[in-house]
Amino acid sequence: MPICKREGFDLNLKEGKNETFHDNDLVFCCYITKRIFRDYENYFRHVMVINSTVWQCESTGKDNLTFEEALKSEKAARKKMEQFKHSLRAPVLLVVEHARQSAIKTLNMLVAKFLRKRYFIGEEVSVQGKKGTLYTVVGIQLEKNTPEPSNGIYEDTDCLEYRLKPVKENESAELTVPFEQVRRQRLEFNIENMSMFIKSNVTRVDGILRPKPDTYKQYVTDPGVTFASIFIGKIPRYSPSKIKKPDSKDATKKQSTLNKYIVNDVESAVKSKAKAKADAKSLAEEMERVRLEKQARLVMLEREKAEKKAQLIERVESECTSLLLKTDDLERSDQKALPRYKPILTLLPQRLLGDAFMMREFMHTYAGLLSGIEVFRQNLSFYEMTRALSVREIAGPLSDILLVLLGTVFDLQKEEEEECTVRYMPGSQSLQTQEPYHSMAQACRCHDYSKRHFSFNINELPLDALTLSEVLRLHLLGSGAMVVEKAERWRVMYRNGYSSKEDPGLELRMRYSRILRTLKNHPVYKLKFVDIMQVIRCLMSQILTYSGTINLIEERMEQTAKAKLELRSLIQGENKRLAAVELNKKKLTQTHQPQISAADPAQKQAMIEKLNKSIAELHAQSDHQQRKHRQQVLQLHSQLFNFLVYLGMDRCYRKYYVLESMPGIFVEHSPDNLDSCLAQPPLNKSQLEIRHQAQLPKNRRDLRLYLLKLYGEEDKKSRKPAKQSLENKENQEHRLNGPTEPMEVVEDAPETPTHFELMMCSGDKRNCIVHDARNGQRQRWSYIYKEDEIDKLIKALNPQGLRESELLLELSTLRSLIEQHVKTCPAELLTLENEPMRRKFLTTMQTETHKRYGEANFGVPEGTDLNEVMRLHLVDKIIRFEADIYTGDLGRLKVKDMEKWRNDLLSGKYEPQSKLQWGPGGMLEDEMVNGSEDQESHEDQEEEDDEKDASALVGRYAKKPYRDPGQYLPADEEELESEEEEGDGEKSEKSLAVIPPEVHNMAAALLQIEQAIGKRFFKEPYGMKKWDPKQDALKLACEARVHQWEVSLMESTSYAQVFLHLNVLHDCIQWRRSTNKSLCKVCRRGSEPDKMLLCDECNGGTHMFCMKPKMRSVPQGNWYCIDCVENLGLKNTGNDKDKKQAAKRKRKFIVEEEVEEDDEEEVEEEQEEEEDEDEEQEEVEEEEEEPEEEEVKSESSARSSVFKVNGRLATRSTRPRSKRLTSKEVEAAVREDSLSLDSEESEEEVEEEEQEENGNEEKVCNKCFYDGGEIQCGRCIQYYHLECVHLKRKPRKEYVCMNCKTTEQPRPRRRHMNGDGDDDGDQDEPQAKRSRSSRNSRLSLEKSARQSNGTSNNNNNSSTNNNNHRRSGRRTNENLPLNSAALYDLLEQMMKHHAAWPFLRPVLTSEVPDYHQIIKTPMDLAKIKSKLNMGHYQLNEELLNDIQLVFRNCDLYNVQGNEIYDAGCQLERFVMDRCRDMQLPFKPSDMNNAVC
After folding, report:
1. How does pLDDT run across 530-539, given as a tens digit for each residue?
2. Contact 69, 79 (CB under 8 A)
């Protein structure tokens, strides 16, 4: 209470505390103090005193407060004091009693210091590092090797240890912790609540602050608490305060009153009232008194009656609410025991059953949407589902499931692309550092990878059981890729707000990246079945995100809503119809009843019969309409049932499903707990009470009437003071229920079921059937299908439970349909309880699926590793593929012993019999490791600028290093944990990047077959739509695509990747041009193959008797069909002049062949390295034996194109097969050959014709093959962009391209570009022969320099012949000792080296301010290359000096150990090795002097 003891406050002394007030009395109420006054003057004085007085809070001592503020302060103080920890109150009182202090502040300081350094026995504390766990102090002891204090007082409490016991866990689990690790809760102890407690519980006795007796007795005396019982040692000693005696003046001084401020007019008021009463008449007073007493009695009776009625209504409403209110199932106390179900026991583990059922139901529900679902006869059987998830097979049901789902995703993607153009973009560089945007950017690169190496989109790749693993990997890696804004808006609009970062494949990539890493080396069939289900769920989730699936789902939802609406309206109409029938019946009765009563007895019976007949007709009509109504309801129920899968949950969170694909009600008890155990689980009522409660009315109106009758007739005298329970009243008064049935009287009450039988929470986490996932009595999956089981379930469900009420409603509404559906439940498949049943199931499964999946592993014995199965099948397909190529006259393998090659491939000891060469620039097999070095510093920027068209592959990005799209996958949580435990994470990651030798061998064999196929037999995109050797740019673009295919093939790490490359290659071959499928172009028949001529260009066949005129004999030389002659300008050798020229050419080429045979022994090693030369040698030998054998062209050179016009023999015997030529070089060679034969035109005229022809062509850059060339070479008439030749502006003088500079150096005509053994052979040739073929030699050298890969060794001394007939005043090539081609290749290799990044561009002053102060002559590789292109170098030493200057500057500016210094060392060592191979003089800097 606020403190104010001044006189004058309690002025209303006349108002008694027990004074009675009546309803009609006029009173004055002070709401601040809750007091009532009859007299206004007393009320006014009371309010004035409260408002004008300054109050003080009794608990805190705050003053200058109003009365309301003082009350609020005391209330807040009491609340804070209650928060003070209960276990600290006794120690505080002991310290207060022992301290004997007089100042409250000093006492607070002593107690706070005492409590901060101590924890007491029985106190609940927490331990540092173990949040959420409370411990109780059970003992206090000294640390080891710490002496006890001599006086028994432990002042230094830091050396104490506390023994703690967990509050909620095992009592025997104790731990001992030091003082610094023990903590108190901040709210339980602080200075403020401690001060409140002390101030409220101390009193001053003789000037000393001591505990109040009642408080001390409550916390210390009664519990028997002593200091020794709560702490170790004795209580500390404190110096007592001096007692201040009270001043005598203060003792006699009295507190002032407020009477002088208040005008007291009580006496005058009393006198006036007394006078007024005396003047009143006594009779009037008596009558008024009697009237008021009577009125008061009536009011009292009415009030009691109203109160009684209100109490009854309130009681009834509360009972109705408690009986009808739906609450959580686990919090109810009226539960019945649930029946036990049969567990599902199959070959599949329990954790896979849910996903397996979901997969089967998905394929059944969306069968009309899935592509290729016909393989399962419109439904996946249970045997096929079990085999898919229990047997390891390549072409089993699992592969069909994945093919159906993945094919559906691809079809949906194509539909989306038809409606909206989808282009992928990596996004901004800033977003790529954050997830999921980093993974989305990497997904974009996966789509670029597919376009670059396969020239197809991912959804266009060939898909079967063998390529599935790689296509699936690429699809998952490319899922969630960023798209352009237009496509993103389209997806948001038509795919219900879907965006790329919501792609399920992106989530799989981020959470389960180990799956994608495994797919890089192994097929999907070797994954764990749990991981396989993750992939299947991902594909199904992706299907559900597309607009087609969303439209189907929305259509079904609309049909369901429509059916529900129709059902509701139908029921309402039926209720109205029934009410109308009753009304008509009543009207008929009312109409006929007076007539019957008034009729004669003879007519009365007839009228009654007539009335009954009318009523019977009315009932018959009603029955007919009711049957029609039931049929309509049944039809609507069936529509709802067709879309029903999930029924609901029961009290323990078990989920109930009805599956269309599998009859039965399936119950899943998931281990995922939806909540935690209840602290105080409710006690269940007896089963007798529950039965009685179940017979009460179900609706609120009837229940309210029943309860009003029950409680309204109770006798007041017989009513007990304690409220009787509803159940006892029901036993006595059930007869008052009216329309309800009488209660059943059960003599023997059944036993109360346990928590397990009730499936209710027990409150113990370790033994709870609801919340303990490891409880042995839980059934993960179970099922029911019998009618009695369904009936027991419906009866056991609680209609007032939140979850069970919904389940009960679904079961009750659709019970008839559900019972009809589950009758055919295959119980024998779902309950394999013993081994004989399992064996029988396995036998049946093999029998049912053998017809389709008998050869799932291609006849390989069971137990064979799946990788070995794929390898064996891949060998068979490669050999069959090679046979189709060879027998179809599409190409021939370039090996010495074909039979040995095949046998080696079959035996697993593959040997290529030659050096393999692939990719842009012809990467050799021994250079593969160096060529695939990491260049991650430029990867991201390069891929952002990467062009999608084929021409970009030819030019700027042709030699970019291979990068697998899955190399940047993040490690998931499980992998990170395993790496931390094992400590060899880097080693395992590197092991995945190693290409298995068996896979590499298969890839190499396929590479050899691809290189043996004639380029004209390829289809788009690896070949031209219509073969035309003149289209150089398109031809090079096609070759570049094939090169990228070769690169990815040789980087394959799994058999699935090799299968994918094989299928892509197979689909890009024009098999219609195979001789095995040749049909006559005239009669379209393949009969009489001995009389069919095959075109040497397109392999098209034509019967000799179908020609006009008919051909009598097989022509000599090459023969071309009419289409090739008209479209390609080819010419058959039909006249004598052509025959003579062909014979002349044949003799000439025989001379060349003799020279070549003399040189073969000298350059045997070089011939093994050059695949094209091997092919030429084999073709020449075959042609000498069989001159009319058909030719297979794998690659066309200048001479093959020139002489194929005049005959096959000349073509096969004169090919310099070192390098390939462009179509323009071929045309130049053709014109030069005709000039040399006729000797009628000069060389200058030929050059003018070339210029005229090229002048009409588009200005296509010969470097990047884009149009818009800006400068033209003055010698080869080729166009270039300034950027492509590293020029800033057009040169003032005539520009000469790099190819022409290369061909100007003197070089002997030789057949092998990598050897020097041909010099003598060329010198022995006739002079006329060399002069006539000089232009062809120049063209061959130009092409060789353009396609050089840096491996050819050019000799500066081989300058014996000069075949350049151009008239020019400049210095000729034989006098320039500059090997431009070799140096250019050296620069190219240097700039592509992974350590060349610091030297590619000039050093900027803004980046390195003092660089030019130290380095007076800066130099970089870009400047060197520019000087070489502009012709500034005349000697090899000049360019090498500039390269040496780069490394000397690096050594001068940088210190050893610096990053740039180390890069310079590596690059200089690389230059030293290359110069040593090329026999160029190079002087290393001081960085690598020790190496020399």
Report:
1. 999 999 999 9
2. no
